[in-house]
Amino acid sequence: MENWFTAVWNYNLGFNPPSDAANHGGNWGLGWYNNPANPIYQKGWGHPFMNTDADGANANRDAAHPQDWPYEVKVMGWAAWSIDTGYSYSTSGRQDWPGETGFSSAGFRPAWWDTNSSRTLVLPALGVFCNSANNCNPDIPPNCTDEACYAQYWWHQPNATWKGDCATQCGHESLKYQTLVSEPGRGYRLQTGTPVCSGAPTGSQVVTSIPSGTPTWGDGRRAVVAIAARGLSVVSAAAFAADHTMGGGVNVAHAGVLAVMATAVVLWQRFLWPALIVHALYDACVFAGG
Predict the structure, then answer these.
(1) Which residues are CB-neighbours of 70 under 8 A, at least 6 positions away?
(2) Which residues partner with 30 through β-bridges?
(3) Is residue 102 very low, low, confident or very high in pLDDT (cuts 50, 70, 90)?
């Protein structure tokens, strides 16, 4: 896993090639913004993203403030530690119960290391990418505010090592499906009962088209309210918000808020006051606790 560190860094931020060095005071390499030693990530220093080995279930809360780690550190953290969903399913679709063979409530299968200490060291020390090779002092990393400052700390060394023997100390992939398998089966033996998939529930309304003139671009908030006024489902409203909010750069929080707005409009129009009140209280709790 660790051998992918700079590749993921480059994937997210990009690489400043030697051919452009003349435009940057002779500097080139991986950008300073994603350097783990960048002080904007000071809150995450010494603390691998999602490290449940050290913090237990509380480590999942790291995902609530991801801005405290650079992109490649977040990727390594997700690869090393999985979220706990509380549920386990076999490939056939059967829900497994705690205590049964094969029960695993991990949201996905993470990579594996020989020891937990080696897993924790998926996060390199500050001095690995901040040292004399790029004129960087790991004891006092530079707090840059513009390109003229941070260009001088770009990283372009051919190697960076923070583990002595990668064969025994680095992470390894863990493949769940190593041979061709069919589509996982439909869920059964479910804690909440067997779903009815033969058709829409009695009394439900399924919208298969929208009226001519329905906004398809522009201000996502007005468009979602307009769609809600035409009776579209909350799922459709959320999907519309995802595609049409902030110029297509979807923000999940915005989409969620817009879906809540859409639901409120529908309930308001249909004079379902009790449902509107319950909906408002539920969403207030969700957003406050999220």
Answers:
(1) 9, 33, 34, 35, 36, 38, 41
(2) 15, 155
(3) confident
193 inside domain = no
Q: Are 81 and 55 in contact (CB under 8 A)?
A: no
260, pLDDT greater than 80:
no
- d(C-alpha 79, C-alpha 249), whole Å: 25
Indicate the SS3 state at residue 188. strand
**What is the per-residue pLDDT for 269?**
45
Longest dimension (CA), the chain: 70
Q: Domain limits at 242?
A: 220-289
Helix (H, G, I), strand (E, B) or coil at 55: helix
Q: Quote the tokens at residue 157.
A: 């060394």
Q: Domain check: are 28 and 94 in the same one?
A: yes
Q: Where are the beta strands (DSSP E) in 124-249?
A: none
Query: Is residue 47 included in any domain, yes or no?
Result: yes
Q: 163 in a domain, yes or no?
A: yes
Cβ atoms within 10 Å of 267's Cβ, excluding its own: 19
E-strand stretches of the chain: 15-16, 29-30, 88-89, 95-96
pLDDT, mean over the chain: 79
* Residue pair 46/54 in contact by the 8 Å Cβ criterion: no
- Report pLDDT digits (tens) over 117-156: 999 999 999 999 999 999 999 999 999 888 889 999 999 9
Task: Express each pLDDT in 37-81 by its tens digit.
Answer: 999 999 999 899 999 887 777 787 898 899 999 999 999 999 999
37 shares its domain with 156 = yes
- Would residue 96 be called left, alpha or beta, if left means φ above 0 and alpha means ψ between -120 and 50 degrees? beta
